[in-house]
Design a protein that fits this description.
It is a single chain. The protein has six helices and ten strands, in the order H-E-H-H-E-E-E-E-E-H-H-H-E-E-E-E. By secondary structure, it is of the alpha+beta class. It has two domains: 158 residues, Hotdog Thioesterase (Thiol Ester Dehydrase, Chain A); 112 residues, Thiol Ester Dehydrase, Chain A, CATH 3.10.129. The protein has a ten-stranded antiparallel β-sheet, covered by helices on one side. Helix 2 runs antiparallel to helix 4. Belongs to the enoyl-CoA hydratase/isomerase family. It comes from Saccharopolyspora antimicrobica. This is MaoC dehydratase-like protein. Pfam families: MaoC_dehydratas.
């Protein structure tokens, strides 16, 4: 269980990812778990994250904020020698966060990050990045981020499950998403995947323009309903259609039997993101 005393250098890790990506092959995930202790909240960084994502300034951390604190450890795991896939090209397809109670700006955190559950997918293979955030030895925040590595259909891949009819909710807001939001979120999150920064590298991966980060979209949606989130909650999202930048998108949030449903859709009605709060 290697311990990391400071946040890894993401610039160095991305350079490593570019250099080693073409040679990566394998069928197993490394069983390494990275641990970082004594994490103090940088109030200036938190304030900038709040501004970029639309949260108000509070003593409680946004439910998505621990994701950016642990992102460097996630990237380090996915650039270690035993990781089987190139980092560039992985697709973030889903994210689930469970919060036992709100984290406070005064809390001192410990974070643990590991990889799990490499499994077939009709479009390739997928796996989870699991992050646990502790305060005084108690896990109070847990995240499962699911990534897809596209490739040849595995022989043992199960057929894709049929989705229920996707009916758009009545929009509660129309958002104009600026073309620089990918660069702004990258600056505060450290996620500088080139598909989010400029059109030219995005086109190399099949996108007409740069696309928004999925976790910015999730954070922006939760910022819109932040006052309605319970202290203890689970927030699940599925990332669907990439949000090309700049964009105009319809946001909707409505009470459900167990909490809230929310979504972000293109003007055509196709979903960028579908989420639930329980």
């Amino acid at each position: 269980m290697p311990e990391v005393s400071t946040a890894p250098s993401l610039a160095a890790l991305y350079a490593k990812a570019v250099a080693t990506g073409p040679a990566r092959r394998g069928d197993r995930l490394p069983d390494t778990e990275y641990v970082r202790r004594d994490i103090a909240i940088d109030r200036d960084h938190l304030a900038e994250y709040d501004r970029v994502c639309g949260f108000g300034l509070r003593d409680e951390l946004p439910v998505t904020y621990p994701h950016v604190l642990s992102f460097g450890l996630s990237v380090r795991l996915m650039t270690d020698p035993g990781f089987p896939f190139p980092l560039v090209g992985l697709v973030h397809v889903a994210n689930s966060i469970h919060q036992q109670r709100p984290l406070l700006v005064t809390d001192e955190l410990t974070q643990r990050v590991r990889l799990a559950d490499l499994r077939p997918h009709p479009k390739g293979r997928q796996f989870d990045v699991i992050t646990e955030t502790e305060v005084a030895g108690e896990v109070v925040w847990r995240e499962v981020s699911t990534y897809l590595r596209r490739g040849g259909k595995p022989a043992d891949a199960a057929p894709a499950a049929e989705r229920q009819a996707d009916v758009a909710a009545v929009p509660t807001a129309k958002w104009r998403v600026p073309g620089d939001i990918g660069r702004r979120y990258a600056a505060v999150s450290g996620d500088r995947n080139p598909i989010h920064l400029h059109a030219l590298p995005a086109k190399a991966f099949g996108f007409r323009r740069a696309i928004a980060h999925g976790m910015w979209s999730k954070a922006r949606c939760l910022a819109a309903i932040a006052e309605r989130l319970p202290d203890q909650c689970t927030v699940d999202v599925e990332f669907r259609k990439p949000l090309l930048l700049p964009a105009t998108a319809d946001f909707a949030a409505h009470p459900a039997e167990t909490g809230w449903n929310f979504e972000l859709r293109a003007r055509s009605g196709k979903p960028h993101l579908l989420g639930t709060v329980r």
